[in-house]
Amino acid sequence: MASSSEEKKITTHTLQEMKRRGEKISMLTAYDFSLARILDDAGIDVLLVGDSASNVMAGHETTLPITLDQMIYHASSVVRAVKRALVVVDLPFGSYQGNSKEALNSSIRIMKESGAHAVKLEGGKEVKESVERILSAGVPVMGHLGLTPQSIYKFGTYVVRAREEDEAKKLIEDAHLLEEIGCFSIVLEKIPASLAARVASELKIPIIGIGAGGKVDGQVLVLHDVLGINKEFNPRFLRRYMSLYDDIKKATEKYIEDVKSKSFPNEKEQY
Ligand code: KIV
User: Beta partners for 209?
Assistant: First the structure.
């Protein structure tokens, strides 16, 4: 359903209500003004300015290189486009793990300089103090457990997480901890569907899945994957809705042909 400008803005409270009444939450990543405007106009509930910008916007192999300044640039572009969606911004690698004061300062910069509505960070018990300190300043926090791409060099691979009992147990404990200390929602990435379903049923806060099955409270995907701008990334959990790589390539080839053949611009396309 498309949104209208009169429609109420989505807040963290709205998401809790949606979970309570069993309405699924839709979330996509966004990094720039033009696409964020289309997604918001289409009625998306949450826009995540993900640190996946490091991959899809900047071409890095991992999410680690992106900086706080770069995240703020992307976030402020998205915020300017949005009338309805809740805008959540990833705290980039190195901006919150050092100590809780650094985490707070990074979050305050994001909120002040971009106008976003919440931050997201990766991890459970290890980041407890940082999450508490950010929350104490009134900044809403979304957690992120399971496959946490900022720890890729610890994991060594992007395979499904928490298949083993120990890791699953820690994930459940971390999810409860994040809820207890006040996170408004948690992303669960690439874990068994049965484990994600258990977490979603035990917790009151909304659980948003990516590669975590359908029995959670909402879904998130990376926009460039959904639109088929990336051809190389084909995980099982991804559903592509377009093949923009091919369409953009074809359009570009046609434009080049028209320029070279002098058919562009024609008489009507000039002054
Ligand atoms: O950065 C990102 O795009 C994310 C999603 C995969 C949840 O964190």
Answer: 188, 219
Quick one: which H or E segment has residue 255? helix 244-260
| AA letter at 124 | G
Pocket around ligand 1 at a 6 A CB cut-off: 29, 48, 50-52, 90, 187, 189, 210, 220, 222
DSSP state of 227: T
**Catalytic residue (one of 61, 113, 189, 253):** 189
Q: Is the pLDDT of residue 3 over 50?
A: no
Taking CA atoms only, the protein residue closest to ligand 1 atom 4 is 50
Query: Is 180:129 a contact under the CB 8 Å cutoff?
Result: no
pLDDT (0 to 100) of residue 232: 86
Catalytic status, residue 179: no
Q: Compute the distance from residue 259 Cα to the ligand 1 centre, in Å.
A: 39
Q: Give 5's pLDDT tier (boundaries 50, 70, 90).
A: very low
Q: Who contacts 39 (Cβ-Cβ below 8 Å, separation ≥6)?
A: 28, 30, 47, 85, 223
Quote the mean pLDDT of the chain.
96
Parse the chain into domains and list their residue ranges. Answer: 4-240, 244-271
Q: What is the distance between the alpha carbons of residues 93 and 71, in angstroms, rounded to a whole number? A: 11
User: Hey, which of 39, 47, 51 would you mutate to test ligand 1's pocket, going by the most ligand atoms within 8 Å of its Cβ?
Assistant: 51
The whole-number pLDDT of residue 6 equals: 47
Residue 231 has pLDDT above 80, yes or no: yes
Fold that domain 4-240 belongs to in CATH: TIM Barrel (3.20.20)
Question: What whole-number distance in Å separates Cα of residue 264 and Cα of residue 262?
Answer: 5
Separation of alpha carbons 94 and 99, rounded Å? 10
Mean pLDDT value across residues 234-259: 97
